[in-house]
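All the exercises in this workshop are built on plain-text protein records. There is nothing in a record beyond a sequence line and a structure line. A learned vocabulary of local backbone shapes supplies the integers on the structure line. The question running through the whole workshop is how a given chain folds. Here is such a record, shown just as it appears in the course material:

***
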Amino acid sequence: MPPDTMTISAVIPLYNGAPYIAESLNSVFSQTLQPDEVIVVDDGSTDDGPAIVARMAETHPITLLRKPNGGQSSARNFGIAHSKGRLIALLDQDDAWYPNHLAELTRAFRRPRYPELGWVYSNLDEVDESGRMVTRQALHRASHVVHPKRDLTQCLKADMFILPSATVMSRAAFDAVGGFDERLVGFEDDDLFMRMFRAGYDNIYLDKAPTKWRIFGGSSSFSKRMAVSRMVYVRKLLAEFPNDMHRGNNYTQDLIVPRFFPWLVREYNMALRSGDPEAIRAALADMRFLMPLHRPRIRMVLRLLMPVLEMPGLARVLSPMVSMARPALRRLLR
């Protein structure tokens, strides 16, 4: 798009983010290329985060919107719906941008491209809770993940590692696919960018890190809400991608189930260690759902193991032996 029409909206969802929101906003106002508007969506916070934003808004051009708590997908959709920019730059409340973030990620949008460019994303630096460096260019650790996205099978077989804070996207592409799925509180980013890819929008990956990604204890990766969201996404993928035998692609057995079943095993083990009966039952129900869809050899082994897993007391006793035998099991199940 011509530079004079390349308007940028920075959108930040906020939920109990008081310790970090000032740093995130200061990183926006330190950009060498300033956004045309900055929108913060208070998603029903119960801490001082909104008050911090309101004080900053007295001296900075910030629009603070408020809504009842509905989750990050809902807050992002709400903020984007109230924005005007032709480009959308998302930033999570505990992440931050280096000063060159917007200049780097918007450059490719300055000229027409065919097919139309849907999003540009980058590598990022991982920092800890206090903002100290953990890993430079953290996506290099996921060496099995392919960037940029060029093939459906690569998008299905592993997490896409397109982090919203390290992304600038076209409003036209976002609107065309209907925005974030508000049922999802995890994998909502994979879901969105998969739909953009399927709609024919192109993407560019920058193997540089103009973004800081804060990771610390209390991750939601194994929360009950995340477990529910994960299975919503799994069912969505299974419905969207039936096997394509014309191309020789068994999406279910070869890609989707092998990607997500290990998550269920980890959730079961964590529930077993915590002694949470509800979490154990939920993990077992999810495993029973996916088990018939797994590869035949793995399905056979799982049928033998399920009676043991369904007796948590026995499973706890046998767990150390299973851990010791895990390498052999991996070789057997290849």
